Amino acid sequence: MAEHSFPEVQGGGSLILAWQVRNKRILVVGGGEVAAGRILNVLNADAKVTVVSPRAGLNPEVAHRIERGQVTYHDRKFEPSDLDDADMVLTAVDDPEASSQIWRLCKERRIPANIADVPPECDFYFGSVHRDGPLQIMVSTNGNGPKLANIVRRQIAANLPENIGDAIKKVGMLRRKLRKVAPAIEEGPKRMQWMSKVCESWSLEDLVEMDEQDMERLLGFYKPGIVPSFEEIRLGDESGVWRFDGSFGWSVVC
Ligand SMILES: C[C@@]1(CC(=O)O)C2=NC(=C\c3[nH]c(c(CCC(=O)O)c3CC(=O)O)Cc3[nH]c(c(CC(=O)O)c3CCC(=O)O)/C=C3\N/C(=C\2)[C@@H](CCC(=O)O)[C@]3(C)CC(=O)O)/[C@H]1CCC(=O)O
Ligand SMILES: NC(=O)c1ccc[n+]([C@@H]2O[C@H](COP(=O)([O-])OP(=O)(O)OC[C@H]3O[C@@H](n4cnc5c(N)ncnc54)[C@H](O)[C@@H]3O)[C@@H](O)[C@H]2O)c1
């Protein structure tokens, strides 16, 4: 029997996920610079954010979010009842005792929490995030060097294709249309194979250029399992691809 080679387990890492917090209630305790960063992160993920922090200690960015009504605000120190309707808690206060009390209460109530500055009291760490439309890249050094996470993130971002976010947007549109054209669960493998071929064979520029009409035309080739090139799609009737004879493109086993 052939010897399999499976990945080695490398313990000591984090489970990096894309946590869906849309409309989840997130409590941020503290209104300083660190809180400002946390608030932006969770607003970018469409959470419902409540901030508890005395007005005197508010950072200008946090004050701006409050003024704009982007968050619900309580002008006072933390009280245990603040946890009553929280799905997640983020603390960023300059008071270690208050931090630890909040952590203990969160544990009792099984609410996931991030306590800034106290890694052993964090259920999850934040990371350094690059965002370009639907694309998000997070770098974590697992508590070893947050500043280095920032530096690595910027280096990665500088080396990305300029139009990657727009290309991903277009692929998202095409996938949603494809699921309308071929909604059956049994079609999953064929859908996935066809989408993979589109992503592999079209350049990012092609994907960015692709308009609604191109998408409709391209989707016309899903049934026979073919992926014409962008040029063939744009040329339309002149390209010959519209009179498909099975001699080009990729065939997908149905
Ligand atoms: C990535 C980022 C995300 C964010 O916060 O959103 C983030 N810290 C950032 C910046 C930053 N933080 C600190 C400095 C000063 C320089 C330095 O110390 O290096 C700088 C640099 C700066 O400010 O530019 C100080 C610091 N941070 C922590 C401690 C406690 C400790 O280590 O014990 C101390 C020491 C306090 C002290 O010594 O007193 C702990 C954590 N900070 C984390 C995340 C988690 C681990 C992430 C990872 O390892 O990858 C973790 C474990 C928990 C958490 O907070 O979730 C964000 C960069 C975002 C960006 O700019 O892109
Ligand atoms: N993890 C990280 O990435 C990171 C980076 C830098 C600093 N820190 C740490 O995070 C903490 C916050 O940093 P900062 O620069 O935002 O501090 P800051 O002093 O600017 O802000 C602290 C905020 O907490 C509020 N506050 C204090 N006690 C409170 C309570 N009981 N209830 C509600 N609000 C309360 C204050 O009013 C203020 O708005 C500090 O402990 C700092 O050392 C963490």
TrEMBL record:
InterPro entries: Met8-like (IPR028161), Met8_C (IPR028162), NAD(P)-bd_dom_sf (IPR036291), Sirohaem_synthase_central (IPR028281), Sirohaem_synthase_N (IPR006367). Pathway: Porphyrin-containing compound metabolism; siroheme biosynthesis; sirohydrochlorin from precorrin-2: step 1/1. Coiled coil: none annotated. It catalyses: precorrin-2 + NAD(+) = sirohydrochlorin + NADH + 2 H(+). It is an enzyme of class 1 (oxidoreductase). Residues 161-228 form the Siroheme biosynthesis protein Met8 C-terminal domain. Its EC number is 1.3.1.76. Residues 132-158 form the Siroheme synthase central domain. Keywords: NAD, Oxidoreductase, Porphyrin biosynthesis. This is precorrin-2 dehydrogenase. It comes from Coniosporium apollinis. The lineage of its organism: Eukaryota, Fungi, Dikarya, Ascomycota, Pezizomycotina.
